[in-house]
Design brief:
By secondary structure, the protein is an alpha+beta fold. It has a domain of about 55 residues. About 60% of the residues lie in helices and about 15% in strands. The strands form two sheets. The protein has a three-stranded antiparallel β-sheet with strand order 1-2-3, covered by helices on one side. Strands 4-5 form a two-stranded parallel ribbon. Strand 1 and strand 2 form a beta hairpin. Helix 1 packs across helix 2.
């Protein structure tokens, strides 16, 4: 009887030891679980913060892009209206395609008060509008991206009517003064050359 009691006591002690060990193990696991949970919550918070930062950057980029389009439209529209006496109005249409912005140059006239792509506007062909818009876009690139303040123009206005050349000359002077850009032009048109500060004849 005594031997049996001792065995029961030993088994009881062993079970108690195992139980205590399991309790310690369980406590360790609980502690580890709480630590992991805290880390996960911290990472989730960091992830949320990163997403918020990304959204802010995205909005800043969108705002800067919009400001750029407004500035481009303003310069081009001013030049087009100046040269063509308010005959045309210019704007940029921006759309998102595949996560990337694409822009289209649109024009409308007094005769057709609906914006259409500039290359599909019948009135723009043969009038020199395309050359003026191309020149003004070149100017905006220099101003928006802080490029060197010198622009070379090689017979850029040869398709314009002679009556518009003096207007272009005054526009060049205005843009040079307001945007701090120096224009170096090659031309056979003496009327345009008369607006230059310096003339070199070849």
């Amino acid at each position: 009887m005594t031997e049996r009691f001792n065995k029961l006591k030993e088994n009881s002690i062993r079970l108690e030891t195992l139980a205590n060990a399991n309790i310690e193990k369980r406590n360790e696991l609980i502690k580890e679980y709480k630590s992991l949970k805290k880390d996960i919550e911290s990472k989730e918070s960091e992830k949320d913060s990163l997403y918020q930062i990304l959204e802010i950057y995205k909005q800043v980029i969108i705002n800067l892009r919009q400001q750029t389009y407004v500035k481009i439209s303003s310069i081009v529209n001013h030049g087009v209206k100046t040269v063509f006496n308010d005959k045309y109005e210019f704007k940029i249409d921006v759309k998102e395609r595949g996560g990337k912005p694409t822009c289209q140059f649109l024009i409308k006239t007094k005769e057709l008060p609906v914006f259409v792509p500039i290359d599909k506007s019948q009135s723009s062909h043969g009038d020199g509008l395309m050359e003026i818009v191309a020149f003004l876009l070149q100017v905006t690139v220099h101003t928006v991206y802080n490029a060197p303040n010198v622009i070379f123009l090689d017979e850029s206005f040869r398709r314009l009517k002679s009556s518009r050349i003096p207007i272009v000359g005054r526009l060049l002077q205005e843009l040079s003064e307001t945007l701090n850009i120096q224009f170096i032009c090659t031309t056979h048109d003496e009327s345009l050359a008369s607006f230059a500060n310096n003339i070199i004849e070849l």
